[in-house]
């Protein structure tokens, strides 16, 4: 993940494999930090997770969906981009009453170090 963070801090696009690994690790961290099945977070083409406590979704399109590009997710998860600002600027598609990750982001510190779940 450190290579992906270094690349975005240098205004470069991380290599595809590096970006894929970082996004998948951060999606896993999101699901661990905010377990549940109320919101589906999609980062195509690398993955999707369900998170946030609340009503469980079972079939069809979930009522609460967040979708963004891999680089945007990396910036959100590492605190380089504010969730509300990203939605306002059209960098994140968020639909549904619970489609808000503001309370659980960032997932890492500036250098990519894991944050405590309590933070």
Structure description:
With 119 residues, this protein is an alpha+beta fold. 34% of the residues lie in helices and 15% in strands. Strand 1 and strand 2 form a beta hairpin. Helix 2 crosses helix 3. It starts with a helix and ends in a 24-residue tail after the last strand. The model has no long low-confidence stretch (mean pLDDT 91).
Structural features:
single chain; 119 residues; alpha+beta; Nonspecific Lipid-transfer Protein, Chain A; 4-stranded mixed sheet; 4 helices; globular
Helix and strand element order: HHEEEHHE
- What's the average pLDDT? 91
How many strands in all? 4
Low-confidence blocks of residues = none
Beta-strand residue percentage: 15-25%
Please indicate the count of domains: 1
How far apart, in Å, are the first and last alpha carbons?
Answer: 20 Å
Major beta sheet summary:
4 strands, mixed
Enumerate how many helices there are, as a single number.
4
CATH hierarchy class name: Alpha Beta
The CATH architecture term is 2-Layer Sandwich
| Strand numbers in spatial order across the main sheet | 2-1-3-4
